[in-house]
Design brief:
Blueprint: H1 3-14, H2 17-27, H3 41-50, H4 60-68, H5 72-79, H6 83-90, H7 100-111, H8 114-123, H9 130-135, H10 139-148, H11 158-167, H12 172-186, H13 188-191, E1 210-216, H14 221-226, H15 239-252, E2 256-261, H16 265-276, E3 285-291, E4 294-295, E5 298-300, E6 306-308, H17 309-314, E7 329-334, E8 348-349, E9 372-376, E10 385-387, E11 391-392, H18 393-405, H19 412-424, E12 438-441
Parallel strand pairs: 1-2, 1-3, 3-7, 7-9
Antiparallel strand pairs: 4-5, 5-6, 8-10, 9-12, 10-11
Helix pairs in contact: 15-18, 18-19
Subcellular location: Cytoplasm; Nucleus
Catalytic activity: Strict requirement for Asp at position P1 and has a preferred cleavage sequence of (Leu/Asp/Val)-Glu-Thr-Asp-|-(Gly/Ser/Ala)
EC number: 3.4.22.61
Amino acid sequence: MDEFQRTLLCISQELSKSDVCSLIFLCQDFLPLKNKVIENATEIFILLEENGFLDMHDMFIVKELLFLIHQFKLLKDFFNVSKERMEEEMKYSSKTTISSYRHLLFDLAEEVSEEDLIKIKQLLNCQISRSSMDKVKDIYGMFTEMEKTAILAKDTIEPLKKIFNEIDESLLCKITTYEESYAGNLNIIKLCPCPKPINGFYEMRSKPRGLCLILNNFNFNEARQNIPTLKELKDRRGTKTDLESLREVFLHLHFFVKSFNDLTGKKILQVLKHYSEQNHEKSSAFICCILSHGNKGIVYGTDGQSVAIHDIASYFIRSRCPSLSGKPKVFFIQACQGKEFQGSVSPETDACNCSSVCSETKNKLIPDEPDFLLGMATASSFVSFRHCTQGTWYIQALCKHLKGQCPRGKDLNTILTMVNNEVSQKFDTQHGGTQMPEPCSTLGKKLIFPLH
């Protein structure tokens, strides 16, 4: 057992059954907990690992959960983090996973007594069936049942206000604060549709600058087994090198980096949806890197299900992610964009050797809105190359030039031109393979990542 696993086990042993119930409630928006019987915190930590929210390099989710359930001593004992310092870190919403909506419900739940729960059941007696109501054993179950029956949702808080107006008026202020915050986020577009350029540059003052998501797919065994046309799809050897390079460079550029490994097509969309719904108001930018196999206009999940690149970026348009309105949203896609297999053993490609391409592939890869930049590893219809130990031509060149040129004050478009130049000069002499990256952009200003 390594130090990482030992720490999680020790934390789990310190948590009570009540703490475990709290963790289950806090995590239910993003973990597959339905019909699962969770006995201890270790099982929750395992699910967090399996779903990409926790690894040995990033234990922030554990600290966040301990903070929310008021286990401040464990925070100090295992992470040497005080309550005050964690409170400060939590202000950077791009680092948090638990939504403000779930946080609100948890805060309210802590104030509800058994007598209060009986009153709430009586108030909702006509809206929830008796059989469902009989299964409710605590306030967490009550909130969950209200969500199931669409009485309660992150944008439907009025029923909650009516209930607590009857139960405990002193708690109404928490609900009102959330309601105002949520409404404020929805109105960001109207209040601030697109900040005017400051000397032609995007503002980059917050620390962290914002969130950098890395979705990294290596194991395609499920795709090979279940989809006949993808049976030749190989595991993406060398992708770990790309992941580590991206993590290093964006941490250096003051981004909060969150990585997920081996995601199915559905899970890719779930992760993107989850982070598009977070409050990025205190962020200056958003970065998303996707490392996978692909085809024209799409990337593949590890189950072989295709995800349209246009759909990936569309989660972050103004109407769906208003807190990023007017801020740069940058996507780097390392995946082939063609069906042809220009293969060799090393380097490999990120293409599939299949005979068909989705006939509905979208030509337009980014939304028809300002402030988007898409860096594609290769042009449409062509493969991209990946070395089985050194990583991909594109990502390695990208990281090299970000490291070298950001300290010199070069803007991202200039850096991507340098990346294009380097990658286009590479040549696989054994099989005649070449590659030309293809950036496309609706940025309205220059984007610079300062080191200070």
